[in-house]
Amino acid sequence: MYTFSSKLKTFSIVLMVLGILGIGIGFMSVPNKEEVKEMMKNAHDGHHGKTATHEVHENVGTHDAHKAEVKHDVHGHDDAHLEHVLHQQQNKPWSAFYVACIFFMLLTVGVLAFYAIQQAAQAGWSPILFRVMEGITGYLLPGSIIFFIVLLLSGFHVNHIFVWMDEAEVAKDHLLQGKAGYLNVPFFLIRAAIFLAGWNIYRYVSRKNSLAQDESNDITNYKKNFKWAAGFLVFFIVSESIMSWDWIMSVDPHWYSTLFGWYVFASFFVSGITTIALITLYLKSKGYLEYVNTSHIHDLAKFMFGISIFWTYLWFSQFMLIWYSDIPEEVTYFVFRIENYKLPFFGMLVMNFVFPLLILINTDFKRLSWIVVMAGIVILCGHYIDFYNMIMPATVGDQWYIGWSELGSIAFFLGLFIFVVFSTLTKASLVAKGNPLIEESKHFHY
Amino acid sequence: MSNKVIHAIYNDDDVLMEAVKQTRAAHHHIEEVYTPFPVHGLDKAMGLAPTRIAIASFLYGLVGLSVAFTMMRFIMIVDWPQDIGGKPSFSFIDNMPSFVPIMFEMTVFFAAHLMVITFYMRSKLWPFKKAENPDVRTTDDHFLMEVGVHGSEEDMISFFKSTGAVEVKVIEKH
User: Fold this and answer.
1) Rounded-to-integer distance, Cα A121 and Cα A198, Å
2) CA B83 → CA A276, B87, B127, distances in Å?
3) From the CA of B44, how many Å to the nearest CA of chain A?
4) What pLDDT, in 10s, does the model give residues B32-75?
5) Is A397 left (phi over 0), alpha (psi -120 to 50) or beta?
6) What number of other Cβ atoms are within 10 A of residue B83's Cβ?
7) Backbone φ/ψ region at B41: left (φ over 0), alpha (ψ -120 to 50), beta
8) How many angstroms separate the CA atoms of B121 and B130, rounded?
9) What is the dihedral of CA A33, A38, A40, A44, to 10 degrees?
10) Are A316 and B58 in contact (CB < 8 Å)?
11) Which residue of B has its CA nearest to A319?
């Protein structure tokens, strides 16, 4: 049995408190209309000389009335711009919270999918890690409750993360009107509820069967889990795809991409596997997992390596197909990101691809704890940035920076994640001793 | 005396593994082991150095990547930078995404093929090569361990008999 060390517990609570503090400061420091005006004025003054000469040049020899009209237009444009920037500033703490919230929840879903795959494939190496995976998926329930509350708040217009939820916006946008049959708040929330419920039910049932199997003399529970895993994987792949359109792609409701669901899947799947590796190494270092050897770590590291490359393949396929054909309605998605998010956009490629590719290609390295931990931390940060790149450009535009809101949200959810996961780990033996493949797994050697 | 070898023949891979370990423990020098299929862990038991072919392959991959890069930069950007369907051919990085499929394939091509050729060369395999098989049964269901004879021939024969060999022969090697 695992006991939650008081040090780690305190650490997670400190993270949560600091996180709430950061989130609070983020919400308090949203500038009001006057401050935004001031900000924009300061920014404009820098270019004023240039703009002025340009205007004069353009207006040479035109009618006075026309001049007035031009001036008026410029003024109206400024107001619209002011409104726009204000909205982005107001979105910032919400989006930061949303990104961290969906990242940690989906990471858990990635672990759940990995767990189901291991069950359905009857893998012989991984049963020794099942309790670690079950511990991580313990976060799914609290994570999805918080996430659903955020979606509800968006649905009730508390924030502006999803532009298609704003009726005034839809009224003047033909494209959004055309999508209203799918993108409307009640249907959106019903879908979200079904998906979250489906995942949580599978998590609950598989955990229950897994614990029951420990006390049982036959393998009926194991067989039940096998069938549940197969059924879940079918449900998962459908719900995952729709989930990615709803929760991530719909922040950019004018844009669409067919392989987006897979791309999002690869991102949180590799994060989930990395988390399994990190938590396994932590527990191992504390002496709780006596049967876990370097071969298990090697296998996890191979998955981290392989799925990182799979993620890159999907990222590149999506990017290159859109870049190559250069269709204006699709390409704006990447044009905006490359212009305004250059460092996170290409930086994540280094963190999620180049770094794991070079470091985890070596067989000996994949057995060294510190290498796997280092690569794992880089991969997790990289995939957080990936989610950041998917959400932020649509909600805060070019007003982004990593500040109190972002770091606070990450700290809060990381603290909550550690707290829930390690509490769940204390609730059952770390060896799933009833699993018929556990002996093979204990002696797994590669 | 020194060019005599013992051929100890086994009919089970577990017995062979055990015999290899005993032979190593008795400090007899194993010249070669012939098996009909890969025996897992045999190389470790024999104390063979790990292969470096993966490292060679990685380096070949880098060569392939450089070839692809140099080729396309010269052809598409330096030699004749045409406007083909609006693709930006001002610099390599501008048009990089369209070169990636080729760079990827060339990397894999070089890594795979040069590694295979390295394998053939290092293990001396080619068409019309004379087979070096001491006993035809080793390609079917028997395992053969070849050990150089040093010291007493009788002692060695009885030693290999004791390791479970079904047949022990002393061969004059030329």
Assistant:
1) 21
2) 49, 6, 48
3) 13
4) 999 999 999 899 999 999 999 999 999 999 999 999 999 999 99
5) left
6) 8
7) left
8) 15
9) 150
10) no
11) B97
A324–chain B Cβ distance below 8 A for any pair? yes
Does B58 lie at the interface with A, CB-CB under 8 angstroms?
yes
What is the ipTM score, two decimals? 0.89
Residue A393 to residues A164, A241, B83: CA-CA distances in angstroms? Answer: 16, 21, 32
Contact B98 A320 (CB under 8 A): yes
Q: How many CB atoms lie within 10 A of CB A75?
A: 9
Cα separation, A27 vs A92, whole angstroms:
8
Nearest to A319 among B54, B86, B97 (CB): B97
Percentage of residues of chain A with pLDDT beyond 90: 76
A58: pLDDT strictly greater than 50: no
Minimal CA separation from B87 to chain A, in Å: 8
The token pair at A424 is 């769940």
Reduced 3-state DSSP string for chain A: CCCCCHHHHHHHHHHHHHHHHHHHHHHHCCCCHHHHHHHHHHHHHCCHHHHHHHHHHHHCCCCHHHHHHHHHHHHHHHHHHHHHHHHHHHHHHHHHHHHHHHHHHHHHHHHHHHHHHHHHCCCCCCHHHHHHHHHHHCCHHHHHHHHHHHHHHHHCCCCCCCHHHCHHHHHCCHHHHHHCCCCCHHHHHHHHHHHHHHHHHHHHHHHHHHHHHHCCCCCHHHHHHHHHHHHHHHHHHHHHHHHHHHHHHHHCCCCCCCCHHHHHHHHHHHHHHHHHHHHHHHHHHCCCCCCCCHHHHHHHHHHHHHHHHHHHHHHHHHHHHHHHHCCHHHHHHHHHHHHHCHHHHHHHHHHHHHHHHHHCCCCCHHHCHHHHHHHHHHHHHHHHHHHHHHHHHHHCHHHCCCCHHHHHHHHHHHHHHHHHHHHHHCCCCCCCCCCCCHHHHHCCCC
For residue A361, give how far its alpha carbon lies from the nearest alpha carbon of chain B (Å).
Answer: 9
Q: In degrees rounded to 5, what are phi and psi of residue B146? A: -105, 125
- Output phi, psi for B171, to 5 deg: -120, 140
Instruction: Supply A335's token pair.
Output: 């044009």
Model's pTM, two decimal places? 0.90
Please, which residues 297-316 of chain A have a Cβ atom closer than 8 Å to chain B?
316
* pLDDT band at residue A63 using 50, 70 and 90 as cut-offs: very low
Residues of B whose CB is below 8 A from A302: none
Distance between A69 CA and the closest CA of chain B, angstroms: 38
CA distances to A434, B24, B46 from A181, in Å: 49, 76, 70
Contacts of B86 in chain A (CB under 8 A): 326
Residues of chain A with Cβ-Cβ distance to B100 below 8 Å are 316, 320
Hey, what are B76's tokens? 């598409």
In angstroms, the separation between the Cα of residue A358 and the nearest Cα of chain B is: 10
Residues of A with Cβ-Cβ distance to B93 under 8 angstroms: none
The one-letter amino acid at B4: K
A345 touches chain B (CB under 8 A): no
Q: Which of B57, B59, B58, B78 shows the shortest CA–CA distance to B69?
A: B78
Please report where in the chains the tokens 């004879």 appear, as a residue.
Answer: B149
